[in-house]
Amino acid sequence: MEKKLIHIKWLEPIYFSNNITNHKAVKSKLERGAALIEYYVIVLSDKDDEELLIYPAREFKMHHMKDKEFIGVGIAKGFHAAEVLVAKIAKESYKKTGDCHLKEYLLEKANMEDLK
């Protein structure tokens, strides 16, 4: 079994920016700790007053990130693409629920996907 160097539990479905064509390969490289310089990972914040955080993929290789657990929701190529992806998630949440409680929306959506 392939060892994962970063600790991300992914919520399904994973959101990918439009400029990523090979989703599986990018996710696999990221999990193996490849130097994906222009990629960003969108994760749920562990703070009550924050919804989502955008991290450069390269930051997951840093020592201070090694022992942390993350819940990933998306991968984007470029910071602007990550911002667009967060906006897409927010619009989707608002359209479906009438609010922008993104963590709650994404966790509920992931649970619904598990039931399918």
What's the shape?
globular
Judged by helices, strands and strand pairing, the structural class is alpha+beta
Whole-number mean pLDDT? 88
Instruction: Enumerate how many helices there are, as a single number.
Output: 3
Outline the biggest β-sheet.
4 strands, mixed
- Rg from Cα: 14 Å
Catalogue the unreliable spans. Answer: none
> DSSP strand (E) fraction?
15-25%
Order of helices and strands: EHEEEHH
Q: Numbering strands along the chain, what is their spatial order in the largest sheet?
A: 1-4-2-3
Lay out the secondary structure.
Blueprint: E1 8-16, H1 23-31, E2 39-44, E3 52-56, E4 70-77, H2 79-97, H3 102-115
Parallel strand pairs: 1-4
Antiparallel strand pairs: 2-3, 2-4
How would you describe the overall organization of this protein?
- By secondary structure, the protein is of the alpha+beta class.
- It has one domain (8-115).
- 36% of the residues lie in helices and 24% in strands.
- Strands 1-4-2-3 form a four-stranded mixed beta sheet, with helices on both faces.
- It is globular.
- The mean pLDDT is 88.
Q: Can you give keywords for this protein?
A:
four-stranded mixed beta sheet; alpha+beta
In a few lines, what is going on in this structure?
With 116 residues, this protein is of the alpha+beta class.
